[in-house]
Amino acid sequence: MNSDDNAARRPDRPARPARPTLNELRAVAQPPEVRSRKNAEHWTADLYLRHMSIYFTMLLVRTRISANGVTGLMIAAGWAVAAALLIPGIWGPILAVVFCQLQMYIDCCDGEVARWRGTSGPKGVFLDKVGHYTTEGFVGLAIGLRAVGDLGRFSTDPATAFGYAFAGALLAFFIVLNKALNDMVHVSRAFAGLERLPDKAEATSFGRRSVVALLRSAARFVPFHRIYHSVELALLTLAAAIATLISGVPLAGERVLVLALVPLVILATIGHFITIVASSRLTK
Predict the structure, then answer these.
(1) What is the mean pLDDT of the chain?
(2) Helix/strand/coil for 5
(3) Nearest-angstrom CA–CA distance, 53 and 45
(4) Which of 5, 18, 51, 274 could staple 67 via S-S, CB 3.0–4.6 A?
(5) Lowest-pLDDT range of 19-28, 46-55, 131-140, 267-276
(6) What span, in angstroms and rounded, lies between the C-alpha atoms of 29 and 47?
């Protein structure tokens, strides 16, 4: 989900009531072009968050908080996801799952506040990107540190500790790089003077018989390339913590998780790069 808010009020912004009705707010904050964004919305927004976010947005537009201020709350919730993963045991991942749902919920609201107030702009987009990039990078790093366990291992067992920490750092790097590839497309098109890509599936089309198209179709049956978002990563970490409890082996699930995620994210990044180059996104 891309927030498009800006705290600066434009002189041509429309006059709207300070206490809108739900229908008035929904018509402006959730127009069809927003609800139909297939490439910009996380599945949680499509499934349930957009249905609920309008109620919190109604409360927010009646306060003095800016849309960028709401984005700040989203960033704080995202960073809390990574911080929660550093809590040992099962409760850290449970708390992380709660925070990532809160992050995505607020992420729906900041753009809705901006659209209602007519304050949409590049600053909000920038802050939103900062929030998601840093959150998912921090989460990858936290998964690696969680696999280390007691930080005292950096002294008592440095080879193991630094190995898992490095795996987490590698995971964080490729998660951020994989996300950045999408934005590189938009930057490249802007530099080339091409129009903005629409948030529709057609914007990423391939030739029907191309090898890349066939591989992409096959990936739908095993969509591991979609797990590198804070929501999915938090859920996987919770599953790993449950596996550790069941096995009785300390950190077993967490260590298997990070060692599995690293090669998969590298493969996903390479595949993402190939699909971008082979698609119509970088052509007129």
Answers:
(1) 85
(2) strand
(3) 9
(4) 5
(5) 46-55
(6) 18
Q: pLDDT by residue (tens digit) across 157-177?
A: 999 999 999 999 999 999 999
Rounded CA-CA distance 140/171 in Å is 5
Find the helix packing angle between 50-60 and 91-117, rounded to 10°: 60
CB-based contacts of 62, cutoff 8 Å, min separation 6: 18, 19
Indicate if the pLDDT at residue 6 is higher than 50. no
Q: Where are the alpha helices (DSSP H) in 192-251?
A: 211-219, 230-247
- Specify the length of the chain in residues: 284
Count CB-CB contacts under 10 A for residue 37. Answer: 16
Q: What span, in angstroms and rounded, lies between the C-alpha atoms of 181 and 133? A: 12
Residue 64 tokens, joined: 């003095």
What domains sit in the chain, N to C, each tagged with a CATH number? Answer: 22-282 (1.20.120.1760)
- With vertex at residue 282, the alpha carbon angle to CA 279 and CA 284, rounded to the nearest 5 degrees, is 105
- Direct distance between the N- and C-terminal alpha carbons of the chain, in angstroms, rounded to an integer: 25
Structure tokens at 207: 């030739």
In b/e form, how buried is each residue of 166-189, taking b as 16+ CB within 10 angstroms? Answer: ebbbbbbbbbbbbbeeeeebeeeb
- Over residues 186-221, the pLDDT tens digits come to 999 999 888 888 765 555 554 444 555 555 554 554
Which tokens go with 268?
Answer: 């996903």
Q: What are the beta bridge partners of residue 120?
A: 5
Within 8 A by CB and 6+ apart from 49, the residues are 104, 105, 108
Six token digits for residue 94: 């449970």
From CA 191, how far away is CA 188, in angstroms rounded? 5
